Amino acid sequence: QVQLVESGGGLVQAGGSLRLSCRYSGSIFRINTMGWYRQAPGKERELVATITIGGSTNYVDFVKGRFTISRDSAKNTVYLQMNSLKPEDTAVYYCNANFPSWYRADSWGQGTQVTVSS
């Protein structure tokens, strides 16, 4: 079992910032990557950013230059710093832990709501 607990969501005005946190615990061996996804009302869940255990990061185009993913191994926590937020960033943000397919399925957190007002 792997537990992922997100926090840090909330309401912010356009142009503002938020930092999301995802604390992971349990059987975290063999994690390939940790990531953040989001799902807006009426839309499919989409990738936002990922970070490997080695620290390599990847971002989708619409957040490049605005969002930063990072990881504190000592705290078993992954962060998503979100700057210059836009109303279209409004969504539920989910933390993800990816494992080798032969080992186990991905784990997901419960999600945290981010609302950006115009």
What does this structure look like?
The protein is globular and about 45 Å long. The protein is built from no helices and eleven strands. The chain has strands at 2-7, 10-13, 18-26, 33-39, 46-52, 57-59, 67-72, 77-82, 91-98, 107-108, 112-117. It is mainly beta. Strand 5 and strand 6 (57-59) form a beta hairpin. The model has no long low-confidence stretch (mean pLDDT 95).
Question: β content, as a range?
Answer: over 45%
Continuous helix count: 0
Residue-averaged pLDDT: 95
Q: Globular, elongated, flat, extended or rod-shaped: what is the shape?
A: globular
Helix content: under 10%
Distance separating the two termini = 40 Å
Q: Low-confidence runs (pLDDT<50, min 5 residues)?
A: none
Radius of gyration: 14 Å
Pattern of helices and strands = EEEEEEEEEEE
Structural class: mainly beta
Q: Quick one: biggest sheet?
A: 7 strands, mixed
The tally of beta strands, per DSSP, is 11
